[in-house]
Specification:
Distance between the termini: 46 Å
Bound molecules: adenosine-5'-triphosphate, magnesium ion
Structural class: alpha+beta
Number of helices: 9
CATH superfamily of the largest domain: P-loop containing nucleotide triphosphate hydrolases
Number of domains: 2
CATH architecture of the largest domain: 3-Layer(aba) Sandwich
Helix content: 10-25%
Radius of gyration: 25 Å
CATH class of the largest domain: Alpha Beta
């Protein structure tokens, strides 16, 4: 089966509840290429699952149009709605939703047993075996779901989804029930599997690390609105706004609010906490609409620690954490904010200056 493109045009969704109309997604347009691994990333409640459900057909948009390949899945203006089972997509949920009374073999085979076009028992068995081999669960085929670990169940759920080679794979936080270690293993295996099968995949997560490692491209969503679409390196290196900057990266980008002004021949960003000298090379990049009220962004790994007086601002380090191969230094600011610096060496003193690598300083409108 050829993988499908997916095109969303001006898709909006509101729910009509007893408390009135709740707008959940507004004016979403996306162009997903055949074979692409596309991630929908955003905090809890931003509308990711709803968007996935609109694509699968479990929900109907209030406005807009969705095409899967050359078939229109839904078009509100033209009153077209294709039933979910006709869309040739496969869904994997966070809760694996396996049939508890069936064996692994039967669970994986299930989507093949109620196809319109009947296929023989032998060819079902062959397909199940091939899928099980791909996911390395050949040894588990006779077991029931209750006899499996979380990671094994997850693989069975994925097996059930891929066994009939759908045109589009939809996954809603499929790894979030697994412990951290297993999640990392499964992440790599999922990426490998998708690269081999080349099935267009739309993957929902609130975990920025998962998005960065899995996605060919990422759409960052906040409050039902797309903030940015780009390759992982683009959303990391050139975040479109403070929300994206603060959401991607661990620890996240430092966002320092203030007013930009000239002082003693230097350009500085000033706020209640102090005065940050903006390196000359970075001054050219200031593109904010209002210098009185803007945000300077710098990632923890793009700040270096030096002797007082040498850098862009003198500060006192409050806490240093050893995270294995690196150190995180916290500088507490007023209103419970802080600056984090990531460094290879442990700072030798608490009284230091910070130097911002000018290439990596960003400026935002708040
Ligand atoms: N059937 C519904 N009726 C009313 N509101 C709903 C309905 N389904 C979802 N919502 C609301 O829509 C918003 C988005 O929900 P959605 O499940 O898409 O979020 P999400 O990004 O998947 O969050 P999470 O990461 O927690 O799964 C939430 O505020 C939710 O309360
Ligand atoms: Mg969800």
């Amino acid at each position: 089966m050829k993988p499908s493109s997916v095109k969303l045009e001006n898709v909006s969704k509101s729910f009509f509840t007893l408390r009135g109309k709740v707008g959940v997604l507004s004016d979403i347009s996306l162009d997903i290429s055949p074979g692409e691994f596309f991630v929908l990333l955003g905090p809890s409640g931003c509308g990711k699952s709803t968007l996935l459900n609109l694509i699968s057909g479990l929900e109907k948009p209030t406005e807009g149009r969705i095409a899967i390949g050359d078939k229109i899945a839904v078009d509100i203006a033209q009153k077209i709605f294709t039933e979910p089972y006709k869309r040739d997509t496969a869904l994997v949920f966070q809760s694996y939703a396996l049939y508890p009374h069936m064996t692994v073999q039967e669970n994986i085979a299930f989507p093949l047993t109620n196809l319109k076009k009947k296929i023989s028992k032998n060819s079902i068995n062959a397909k199940v075996m091939e899928t099980a081999r791909l996911l390395q669960i050949e040894g588990l085929l006779e077991r029931k779901p209750a006899e499996l670990s979380g990671g094994q169940r997850q693989r069975v759920a994925i097996g059930r989804a891929i066994v009939r080679q759908p045109r589009l794979f939809l996954m809603d936080e499929p790894l979030s029930n697994l412990d951290a270690r297993l999640r990392m293993d499964m992440r790599a295996q999922l990426k490998d599997l998708q690269q081999r099968l080349q099935i267009t995949t739309i993957y929902v997560t609130h975990d920025q690390m998962e998005a960065m490692t899995l996605g060919d491209r990422i759409a960052v969503i906040h409050n039902g609105v797309i903030q940015q679409v780009g390759k992982p390196a683009e959303v990391y290196g050139q975040p479109a706004n403070p929300f994206v900057a603060g959401f991607i990266g661990s620890p996240p980008m430092n966002l320092i609010e203030g007013a930009i002004m000239e002082e003693n021949g230097k350009t500085v960003l000033k706020n209640k906490n102090g005065r940050y000298i903006i390196p000359r090379e970075a001054v050219l990049k200031i593109n904010v609409t209002n210098k009185e009220n803007c945000v300077m962004g710098i990632r923890p790994e793009n700040i270096s620690i030096g002797k007082p007086g040498e850098g862009n601002i003198d500060v006192v380090i409050n806490v240093v954490e050893n995270i294995g191969s690196e150190y995180l230094s916290y500088i507490f600011l007023k209103n419970s904010k802080h600056i984090i610096v990531k460094s290879a060496q442990k700072p030798t003193s608490n009284n230091v200056s910070l130097t911002f690598q000018h290439d990596n300083i960003l400026f935002f409108n708040p």
